Amino acid sequence: MQNIASLNDLDLRQLQAFSAVISSGSVTAAAKVLQRSQPAVSRLIQDLENTLGYPLFLRNGPRIYPTEQALRLHEYVATALTSLQQIRLRANEIWKEEKTPLLIAATPSMSSGLLPEALALINLDDSVQILSDSAEQTAHAIITGKAELGISSLPLEHQGAQVHWIGQSRCVIALREDDPLAQKGQVLLSDLMSRKLITPYNPYRLRRRYEQVLRKARVKPAGVIETNSSVNILACIRSGLGVAILEPVTAYGLPVAGVAIRELDVEIPYYFGVTTPQSKPPRPSVLALIDALKQAAASLLPEFVCLDAGEHARVIQLLHQEE
């Protein structure tokens, strides 16, 4: 039985060629990206397959298709190559004695709906990197000190994270503009009976709360379409696939043509918070951005209320009571 490739057997050029072929879809396109000849890229792929002991691509004339093993491997290769690129950048900054970029971790709704508005309010001298991920990964980036600023929905019950302020607004209903319900200024919860809902995939945060409200009102949807992206939710609504009970940051911060936003007759509060690592004090640019986020939220979100960080325990208790 062939031995599994050791770390010393893996060639960085082979991994780069593999990732480029997966991303670009062909050896020819990958060769252009890597500025290598097509035969050289093909040779690197073949050498990597020989090292791993299994095929990465299926050949059909001039076309190639990634195997299931290749798609699984690419997830880890892409992460590793991104990490190496970060090392190169940090090493270059140290050599040039430049300031490290301000890395901001935020959930997709915050990174697309609120953060750009806040960044536009201030003139940062620092370079900025935005890491858009789940609420759990956003919290992890703050706790480990990878990110200097985090923006995420509540709860934020994590040691190692300093909460600066909490935002409160209310959820809305998003639906296609030509939907009859869009003619109403306020949509009743009962109007959602037998309608298909577009929902977040994560069942443990906002989705759990509004599903409890629906059950309490005995409103049963016709079915759900799940997605891990708020942008996907809006795209599905625009295509007429259903309606969504949506958090307000995406609803008002990322308007989509063909999608109408209306108030619900039932208030479903939405809470989000701004955090920094407890392990180090925030630099002045982070403090400036924390204030700018508050200004942007007040301007963007109807009925926005900014709560002091000391209110965190009370808000968490309210969320637990709703459950």
Automatic annotation (TrEMBL):
GO molecular function: DNA-binding transcription factor activity; sequence-specific DNA binding
Transmembrane segments: none
One Pfam family it belongs to: HTH_1
Keywords: DNA-binding, Transcription, Transcription regulation
GO biological process, one term: positive regulation of gene expression
HTH lysR-type domain residues: 10-67
Cross-referenced InterPro entries: LysR_HTH_N (IPR000847), LysR_subst-bd (IPR005119), WH-like_DNA-bd_sf (IPR036388), WH_DNA-bd_sf (IPR036390)
Family: Belongs to the LysR transcriptional regulatory family.
Listed name of the protein: LysR family transcriptional regulator
Organism: Erwinia sorbitola
